[in-house]
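Support reply, case 0932

Customer input (verbatim):
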Amino acid sequence: MNVFKELLELVKGEIEHLSEAGELPAGLDFKGVLVEPPRDPEHGDMATNAAMVLAKRAGKKPHDIAALLADRLAARGGVASVEVAGPGFINLRLDADYWHGALKRITAAGEKYGAFDMGRGKKVNVEFVSANPTGPLHVGHGRGTVFGDVLAALLERVGYDVTREYYVNDAGAQVDALARSVHQRYLEALGCELAADAFEDGYPGDYLVPVGAALARQHGEKYAAAPESEWFETFRAFAVESMLSLIRDDLAALGVRHDVFSSEKKLVDDGQVQACFADLQSRDLIYRGVLEPPKGKPPPEDWEPRPQHLFRATSFGDEVDRPLKKSDGGWTYFATDIAYHRAKFERGFEDMIDVWGADHGGYVKRMKAAVSAVSGGSAALDVKLCQMVKLTEGGRPVTMSKRSGQFVTLRDVVDKVGKDVVRFIMLTRKNDAPLEFDLARALEQSKDNPVFYVQYAHARIRSVVRRAEAEMPEALATDIHGAEDLSMLTDAAEIDLIKCLCGWPRAVDSAVQSHEPHRLAFYLQELAAAFHLLWNKGNENHDLRFIIPGDGRVTAARLTLIGAVAQVISLGLGIFAVRPVEEMR
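Our regenerated output:
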């Protein structure tokens, strides 16, 4: 059930009736016609732009079409009033019976409310986290981690076949530096004194101490004096696997799992990068050329003043063509990334979503160009950029973690405030807007803590239900057979709460279409606020309390209303993998 789509169909139907009556041309294109809440609630419950969108197509003035359409809509059941505003907007007010009927349908839908089958089993790949396997996840990684995981859950909710994927960057210079840092910890475990600059170009965090100790137990002094060529690959592989194990533990603490871990090194070793290069070359998408240095800014890492193998990225919307090989013959990062996305496409993914840090924003156009090239235009890549997280406590910046040596670990934050708090707060801002995560506020039980505010609404409702079970079990057993029972809901705050409940499918739909799960967090806070407002009115006016002793009909209607609120909060928090608590402690 989606009242906005239902009302849109109503508007379209009335336009078709006008066409049949000869007052409008037949076969009008409805593209762009919307029904949505007006920006100002004083203007009504719903507004449609139909007259303005169709004016040119119909060869009529918007106001004339609006007048015709308003007359027909005013005659429909559930419509209390219709007003033509401005150049042709149509504002609708719906009567109480309409909202009572909507609530009845919401309760009948139960857990299926808002679970429409938009995806129809279509495969979609969501790649997120993909942090370099050089240490534990830091708090900044947490934002993209939660974003990707909740987006995947949301897509699953509406019928997509989702694969959660982690791309392991285990083929670059950073992993080489990790191997050398682990060798230093190995020497340390053997009792060797380390040089002052042992980690100058590496990773000094204490998290590598147990890795070095494990290698010392396994190999003894075998590699203490050996040249790098003898121990490098062994230490490199062990270090990467150790870091991935650490990262998996961090993800598990946050309630995140991946279906696939794809290795960059394996991609190269299996010849997939070379195969991708040959495929693009065979289609004349690679040529030898010299790139001009960028004007007015430092050249990028992959720029060299020499003839290079260049991918025709500009043919697919990028700003410049891109090099695929370095001067030493090795692949550029872009070359391996093209091959990786080509491999995704060959695994059957025409819909790909990558979640990256905002510092990779300059990489988006080239990757979209690459996906278009390797798929022949049949695959789409949506890149979602997540801005930085500023970690504070009581408004003061949090100092770095001693364990990491460089940053605050995600695990430190999860252990301090709990995974539910981290998961919800990470989505209380749009992904491309900066986010401040205040540890003190995250532990508060107040309206300033968004996850508490939503969970508290659910807990309050469960408390009312438990009390009703003890004091008025007959109200819980009352069947809500028709609108005449729900007609007991007459206060403006009660009707507003029903209206808010009706927004759940629209919130889900818009979050899916935009790949923006934070919209659900916004919605849940709005729903919780509408409920708390009604609760507070009941404290001020006892006639508006949810349980009215001696009046089973009113109590049953109000329990139905708040039961629907609890159901929707539970559904929303379920997508976030956050518990809908029964009581606050």
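We compared this against your earlier run and they match. Two observations from our side: The mean pLDDT is 91. The CA atoms of residues 194 and 328 lie 32 Å apart. Please reopen the case if you see a mismatch on your end.
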